[in-house]
Design goal:
The structure is a homodimer.
Chain A: H1 14-44, H2 49-71, H3 96-102, H4 112-117, H5 124-134, E1 147-148, H6 158-174, H7 196-209, E2 221-224, H8 227-238, E3 244-249, H9 254-260, E4 266-271, H10 282-294, E5 299-305, H11 317-330, E6 333-337, H12 353-356, E7 367-372, E8 385-389, H13 392-401, H14 409-420, H15 422-449, E9 453-454, E10 462-466, H16 476-488, E11 492-493, E12 495-496, E13 507-511, H17 520-537
Parallel strand pairs in A: 1-11, 3-4, 3-5, 5-6, 6-7
Antiparallel strand pairs in A: 2-8, 7-8, 9-10, 10-13, 12-13
Chain lengths: ~550, ~550
């Protein structure tokens, strides 16, 4: 599903134009056909040079038309436009009773984008999610169902969230002693880009989650219903249809959807390798940039996910500086998706690009941060995301676009209250980190015992596992077949590297926060079956 | 703010092409200039016909080029592309310390759309909303502030909503005896296009609100965070950038935003007149359609708001049949925005297009209904909208796009519970209708006494008032000046007809559900001041 609206669009209704042109040219060609003989006689006879003079340019013009017509691509052969649709040539009647007997004469046309999106997904990422939704594992109801390890949902601390909600739900939305709220605060229209109270609470939460070493300004924020629309809105702001962003691979499969579909912006992969633990290097970035420019593509930005999804590694401050230099040198934007900033468990410390920006000589107006509460606070169902930008024009435009993705006021009140409960948040952050670390360490250890190594990682809800030894052939096809074994035989949904545009086959993203610690043996047992069947067949 | 991404985009870098063409043609023209004399002599002398034969087609070709070049629009003169931006020609250095001393050499470029949206709004509709937000009337805190009569917010029944929330909030979201809910139902990811329970409850609410005479199928629904993204998503589904929808005027100012901005679809006004009480007629529709086709514009649909916003009149079943015939004949879509379906107070009965469709011979796949709970249930802050389509491909595509506009799960649970409370809903619908009728009748009566007549209406939260007698000159300028008097002198924000693309100057939309019945005299008094000042100055 990588096709987008960004198709070559010809604003002129070509078919008709061409027809008229070719008709007139073909009539002139028949004329010129006849005239080729007559004037040649004339030339021989020393007269009729006038006719020859007319016929030569006409013939040249005809062949030029023919050449251009053949070179021009057929506009949307799969989706006939209403003007050229052959079905429209059927005799029509305005009598409704006649129409009924034949049904609809011509199916009404959809947009190119809808025509593509209406078909089933071809990415294994979405296919996997779809398969789980039809046969989800449940220890009691469906113990042989598919276990979801393909979605970064964090269920490790639902108990804490539930406890808080039971205690605080009513007061947080309808007002209590602490908060002076009335029905006017939740029922009528509210600012589309988010309530100021929530922005303040969120800025403080982000500061906390990032170790207290960086401040976020609520007035630089536009709230959206999740990180997904935040990325889409930013894309609409930063680039025009047909422009491109550079994206280090492997990358989160959703970026294709958020940036290509409606904004029509292309993603140019910058391949990172296992030999570098999939760390980004500036040389690869420079190369991808200059190759794009050579192809005539306008690169408008670089999109990084830090901590990386799917690898789980973290960009060093040095790399962030280099990225800022690179962006300044090329005069392009940086979009930093930092949604996993608080879900760290490793030895590396997360540093937000906002912290690096504090150096005064850096132009902040090109830096835009995406954050959400779906990962670090695990309330994905609440749909709370944010664009934090230093560019006032981007903020103004994003505020206007946020009408299409605004968060419901009751949820905003609820989340404001939750984030403002300092004791709860402190407890949540610590407990969540401990639980992620514990399950990560155990899960990766178990994989190691099966002979599966993972990339070195420090954050996120997944490991990036090297199963290249299990695939045959060593190609995307082999990877695809292994994925099918996992979902069909082992009943486990994981995300293959190809869905993340990884250049090396055999890597898989496995989310471990969708299960409980106690379910690890069950999952590992299912993986073991596949590993053993692969080894026995090789 | 009517400019959009939908600029005439020429995929060929025109300026260069044209230059080459005109250069070659102008050189041929200088040749042909000289040659016009020489061959004429030759003709006279009975020779050089060959040269004349060459020069005539060349001259014709030159003038054709000149003609086409003049007709072609200049692509986006206001937003220079980076390749042509003069700032980029400045010498650059990669040294950061150098950069710091001069600040950023070249401002990073935004998209064309963001460049437009980052500027202040030029529509009086948005200007008015903005003015109110800065100086809102409050009887206690700011009694001389601006009274909001420019937004279709219905505050008449907040007491009922509040009473229900106080009683049911906690149970509806966290589960109680009736509803078996767990934390898994609100905290993790839920289907982006809405919970099935909410779709069922909403379908039932729509049936109720439309008099019980039509059924809606929950499986034909895609839920969105309000009608605004519902319209945008439908637009992305039904038409490509540069295509157009026909829209009867006067129309809701938000349509320009929802359909032009990001989908890049043009809106072609179909003007309705005061002499017809602004009712649509098919002849005007036919004319607008054929004129658009002549201009080479592909019309993909017709967008109606029924009941009409801003007029408040209702389409008759006969007109709905005619519209369906028209759409079938042209093979285009119908988008029916029915968000005011339940806010009726007049003698005319509302009939949904869904009801008309029950005739078996109509092709339903071209009909798409927009609905929301912002108007009829007055919970605009909750952001609950829906696309109801009979086209499976549209539903599939819209489901995928709904990720960018999904409703938070807590709100979905809350609203499901509210809609499922039959007794409450019954009471709400009746009370709301009675209160709208009462305030409408009183308000219109008071306006009449001031000499201001309103269009005949039966639904909505506004009256469409004829103040053409108060404007001088009788033009958009006069209308603008009157609007300024209202907002600056009378401190009242109302929506001028020009913001609704009304072809006749002097009409204003006045929302009366944003105030209480008791506040009518205050509002009327403020209006009276303007009326009297206009009369005294004329």
């Amino acid at each position: 599903m990588t096709l987008t609206r960004n198709q070559p669009i010809n604003p002129i209704p070509q078919t008709r134009n061409q027809k008229t042109q070719s008709q007139s040219s073909s009539s002139s060609s028949s004329r010129s056909g006849m005239k080729l003989i007559v004037p040649l006689q004339g030339v021989v006879q020393g007269r009729s040079g006038f006719l020859l003079g007319i016929s030569i340019p006409c013939a040249l013009f005809y062949f030029l038309q023919l050449y251009l017509k053949r070179r021009r691509p057929n506009p949307n052969p799969s989706s006939p436009s209403s003007s050229s649709s052959p079905t429209l040539l059927l005799p029509r009647t305005s009598s409704r009773s006649n129409l009924s007997s034949r049904g609809s004469i011509s199916r009404v046309r959809l947009s190119k984008l809808a025509t593509i999106l209406s078909k089933p997904d071809d990415s294994l990422y979405y296919l996997g999610l779809d398969r789980v939704s039809k046969d989800p594992y449940d220890v009691l109801v469906n113990p042989h169902g598919i276990i979801q390890l393909g979605l970064s949902d964090n269920k490790l601390c639902f108990d804490l969230i539930e406890k808080w909600l039971v205690k605080n739900l009513e007061g947080s939305m309808m007002g209590n002693g602490d908060i002076n709220l009335s029905i006017n605060g939740i029922v009528p229209y509210q600012p589309h880009h988010g309530l100021n109270e929530l922005k303040i609470a969120l800025a403080d939460f982000m500061r906390q989650i990032m170790g207290g070493s960086v401040e976020f300004d609520p007035s630089n924020m536009v709230l959206t219903s999740g990180a997904t629309p935040a990325i889409e809105i930013l894309s609409f702001c930063l680039a025009d249809q047909g422009n491109a962003f550079l994206v280090p691979t492997p990358y989160y499969p959703g970026f294709d959807r958020d940036i290509r579909w409606r904004p029509g912006i292309d993603l140019i992969p910058v391949h990172c390798r296992s030999t570098d633990n999939f760390n980004l290097n500036i040389a690869a970035l420079e190369q991808a940039y200059s190759q794009a420019r050579k192809r005539g593509v306008k690169v408008r930005g670089i999109l990084i996910s830090n901590p990386s999804n799917p690898v789980g590694n973290i960009l060093t401050p040095d790399m962030l500086f280099s990225l800022l230099d690179f962006a300044e040198d090329k005069n392009i934007h940086i979009i930093a998706d930092e949604v996993f900033a608080g879900s760290t468990y490793g030895s590396e410390e997360f540093v937000s690009i906002a912290e690096v920006l504090d150096s005064e000589y850096i132009d902040k107006s090109r830096v835009h941060i995406i954050y959400s509460l779906s990962k670090d606070l695990s309330i994905a169902g609440f749909r709370v995301g944010v664009i934090h930008s230093y560019n006032q024009a981007v903020l103004e435009a994003a505020k206007k676009m946020s009408r299409f993705s605004s968060i419901s006021a009751p949820t905003q009140r609820l989340v404001t209250s939750m984030l403002s409960d300092k004791r709860f948040i402190q407890e949540y952050i610590e407990t969540n980190r401990n639980r992620i670390r514990r399950i990560h360490d155990e899960f990766v250890d178990c994989l190691n015992k099966l002979g599966i190594k993972c990339a070195k990682s420090s954050a996120g809800m997944f490991c990036w596992a090297d199963m290249s030894g299990l695939i045959k052939p060593y190609s995307e096809k082999g990877e695809h077949e292994l994925w099918e074994k996992f979902i069909n035989v082992a009943k486990i949904n994981i995300t293959p590297g190809s869905a993340c545009h990884c250049i090396e086959p055999g890597w898989f993203r496995i989310c471990f926060t969708t299960i409980s610690f106690e379910e690890i043996p069950l999952v590992i047992e299912r993986i073991r079956k596949v590993v053993e069947s692969c080894k026995s067949s090789s």
